[in-house]
């Protein structure tokens, strides 16, 4: 095991994310009896898995809930679908979530960022609460056509689900897991009923919003069912609630830890897009995804039986020294940077263009408005507790 301390060590990153502390995995894949799953840490191995959905299925959730429950809860949830169902769904929703539509949001995102920052009082504040959390939530809710006055409700459900999230295990009867899945299911159900009502209204009276487009979307004569629209909207709201929040927070953490990079990017703003790519590599917000094997396989010389669950660590693969030179060095101009923070293959993040746009606009405005932006030395950031995420919950900032 090779160890190199990094400037991020001063913060309490999740203990499972040992690679963030400069420790290299002993092997690209290992079995973890504690959770009954395989951890995949290597980059080439991760790409192999993500590029072969026939062998590595995304229908993992069905292992934790009954097939009947899975059919209700995950129908329309792209992340849990395999081809050919996945292809059909992705085509349908892809029609509504277009690059053009995202690009048109730039001035709205800029105005919103200013509005949120204008509301800050004093030299110390929580940047997650002030900007990183509300910005992506407002953007996705506006896109979907969710009334402003209902945003607090959605936040409550999204937070409930997020806070319940723990390390998954394949062991039957794990009490903590059962409770966490129940809480998440309750929150998803409450949100589902709420969205269903909006969908019903859009069917009767379409508006200029994403929900109406989802209702009307058609490919080869097929349309999305209400349940699929509800589950897809649910996924967008959850993804919109937390991932870009983490990207912004993580980028600030990196700039704080590496002041020379902060200075360099402030002087040359053309580096902002590659800064964000490096942030996605260095502190990948969605740290892991899951797959289940559909046949006996061999990964990096290790035999994995059919039906076993793999926890694929995007975040660890992004530190693989076989692919990234000096992986623990934070380089805002890293070239090439084939980071897989948005995944790869058929499940590549649908929201990546939106997240990149929000990140670029918000970072530029933060640089413009705050010549000095530091994590408050008298306070500490707190992190999300689920090992599936790497991101702040609270980010105390000082701007003197
Ligand atoms: C899928 C990361 C923002 C919507 C994914 C996956 C990753 C990811 C790693 C693939 C998971 C897998 O293969 O198992 C991120 C990160 C984000 C971000 C790091 C921000 C920095 C967003 C946003 C949205 C979104 C803002 C939408 C509002 C989705 C959807 C999928 C997805 C719908 C499923 C795609 C599919 O299965 O075909 N995301 N995401 N994401 N993401 Fe994102």
TrEMBL record:
It comes from the Bacteria. Keywords: Heme, Iron, Metal-binding, Monooxygenase, Oxidoreductase. This is Cytochrome P450. It comes from Streptomyces virginiae (Streptomyces cinnamonensis). Belongs to the cytochrome P450 family. InterPro entries: Cyt_P450, Cyt_P450_B, Cyt_P450_CS, Cyt_P450_sf. Signal peptide: none annotated. PROSITE patterns: CYTOCHROME_P450. Gene3D superfamilies: Cytochrome P450. SUPFAM superfamilies: Cytochrome P450. The lineage of its organism: Bacteria, Bacillati, Actinomycetota, Actinomycetes, Kitasatosporales. It holds the Pfam family p450. PANTHER family: BIOTIN BIOSYNTHESIS CYTOCHROME P450 (PTHR46696:SF4), P450, PUTATIVE (EUROFUNG)-RELATED (PTHR46696).
């Amino acid at each position: 095991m090779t160890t190199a301390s990094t400037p991020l060590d001063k913060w309490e990153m999740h203990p499972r994310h040992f690679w963030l502390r400069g420790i290299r995995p002993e092997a690209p894949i290992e079995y973890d009896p504690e959770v009954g799953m395989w951890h995949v840490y290597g980059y080439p191995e991760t790409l192999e898995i993500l590029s072969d959905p026939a062998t590595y299925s995304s229908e993992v959730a069905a292992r934790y809930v009954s097939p009947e429950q899975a059919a209700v809860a995950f129908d329309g949830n792209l992340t849990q679908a395999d081809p050919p169902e996945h292809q059909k769904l992705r085509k349908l929703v892809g029609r509504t979530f277009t690059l053009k539509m995202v690009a048109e949001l730039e001035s709205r995102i800029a105005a919103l960022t200013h509005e949120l920052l204008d509301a800050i009082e004093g030299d110390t504040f929580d940047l997650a609460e002030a900007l990183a959390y509300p910005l992506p939530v407002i953007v996705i809710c506006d896109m979907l056509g969710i009334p402003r006055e209902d945003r607090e409700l959605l936040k409550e459900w999204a937070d409930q689900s997020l806070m319940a999230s723990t390390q998954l295990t394949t062991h039957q009867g794990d009490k903590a897991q059962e409770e966490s899945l129940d809480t998440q299911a309750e929150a998803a159900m409450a949100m589902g009923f709420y969205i269903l009502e909006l969908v019903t209204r859009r069917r009767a009276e379409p508006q200029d919003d994403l929900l109406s487009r989802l209702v009307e979307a058609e490919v080869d004569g097929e349309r999305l069912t209400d349940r699929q629209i509800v589950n897809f909207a649910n996924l967008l709201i959850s993804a919109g609630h937390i991932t870009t929040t983490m990207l912004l927070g993580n980028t600030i953490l990196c700039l704080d830890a590496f002041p020379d990079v902060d200075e360099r990017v402030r002087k040359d703003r053309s580096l902002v897009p590659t800064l964000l790519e490096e942030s996605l590599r260095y502190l990948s917000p969605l740290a892991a995804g899951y797959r289940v094997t559909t046949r006996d396989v061999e990964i990096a010389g290790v035999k994995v039986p059919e039906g076993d669950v793999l926890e694929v660590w995007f975040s660890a693969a992004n530190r693989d020294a076989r692919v990234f030179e000096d992986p623990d060095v934070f380089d805002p101009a890293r070239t090439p940077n084939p980071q897989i923070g948005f995944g790869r293959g058929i499940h590549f993040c649908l929201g990546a263009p939106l997240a990149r746009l929000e990140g670029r606009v918000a970072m530029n405005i933060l640089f413009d408005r705050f010549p000095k932006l530091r994590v408050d030395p008298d306070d500490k950031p707190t992190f999300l507790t689920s090992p599936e995420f790497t991101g702040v919950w609270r980010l105390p900032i000082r701007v003197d």
